[in-house]
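Good day; I would like, with your permission, to put a structural problem before you. The record follows directly beneath this note:
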Amino acid sequence: MNKQLKFLTRTVFAMFLVLFFSVTMVQFVQADELRANELNGRTVKNGYKVERGSILVDGDPVAYSTPTGDSFRFVRQYADGPLYAPVTGYFTHTQGRTGLESAMNQDLSGIGNAQFFTRIMNTLNGVAPQGSSVQTTIDPAAQTAAAEAMAEGGFEGAVVALEPKTGRILALVSSPSFDANLFATNSDAEIIANYRKLEEDPTKPLVNRAIAGDLYHPGSVYKLVSAAAAIEAGKATPSTEFPNPAQLKLPQSSHEMQNASRTSCGPGEKATLQQAIVMSCNIPIAEMAMGMDRDTIPDMARGFGFDQELSVPLKVTPSTSPVPEDQAQTALASIGQLDVRVTPLQVAMVSAGIANGGVVMKPSLVDQVITPDLRVEKEYTPEELSRPISERTANAVAGMMEAGVSSPEGLAKNAGIDGVRVAGKTGTAENGTAEDGSDLPFTLWFTGFAPVDDPQVAVAVVIEDGGGEAFGFQGGSYELPTAVGKRVMEAVLSE
């Protein structure tokens, strides 16, 4: 009998432990996750009572709540909706949310763990529930300059500007954008109708091209990664010379590589690495790459952030740089073609890392979370992501980029700013052929930073389809994205 009682007692005790563990997991460990779950009806209904916190740019609200007379009590409003939509996204009570409205939802809605005691005190004091505000890193002058430059040209593409020393995102523009106020209603029918209209738009305004979407071939801006890999590995210096033919037949391939000029890279029988960067020549870079191990450049790309999961806190689609299978693929990948694909954010990170002496900082869109009584609840500090290259290598690549702007033959010379040392690199990426056999329009790039001696801003600009119909789908990377990048850098430096 005693044996049976002991077994029963132990069984009950074990069941109690399991129950205690389960309750603890639900009430504490999984509490935030359960509250944030969109299927949690209680959270959704509780959200009706809360005045959602604001999203701030330089202290001014660009997303905020206003009272309504319906059961939802509040509705979201967006100042300069299209300008900041790639940053704020949109919020609806029952039809989803995007951007910072989604990524910072717990803070904005006041349901995060950090606000637990604030919620208790507000309840005891009879204070209406209110979410915290989120202060972004966005520089309104840089954001405006980027958005206006893209809109004036009628360009589809994106612009990203970073502060090299901290990783703070100063501008995040996706063009065309959309007006987040289209979702500033509590009518599900209206929200769904507006969403479908945007979703069916062939220009894809809902896609955040700066950090997501189908990604782009980087073309010649990827030569910065190739050059950094060769210099860091001791395989080249800016003055290293390579054979300088006008055409190069790739090994075990029928493909014949040419420079964009369809001529040699300058007049000599040899061309230096610096010449190849300044004049954006393909053949010397390909020859350099084929003289190294096939994984040398992809490894360098990963050092700059390729193939890594990033959250800023918006989720970023990883850029890719697979290891080539043979020498022909090595040559093509080294100039940003083949399977190399990038986001504009990633390209900006490459320039920012070079500008910052080889240190890549983790990009971030958020500076602070501020409570309704104006206390700083969270403060985001700069965080190092990686050190892919030495300061010596960074200086060497930066010097070549500066020559690309300051030299008369430099393709990035239009990025020059009076009285400022500017580094830059253009890029033109091929996108294959259409069904009728014609070449698809090129993707146009510019990336760079300024001032070289004390970098304040690094920028990446991508323009799709050769600039679009207004430019006959044949615009040049040395003019269109370069002009946009210059305007953004000038906006930051003029403050």
User: Anything to note?
Assistant: The chain has 17 helices and 19 strands. Residues 2-29 form the longest helix (28 residues). Residues 40-46 have pLDDT under 50 and may be disordered.
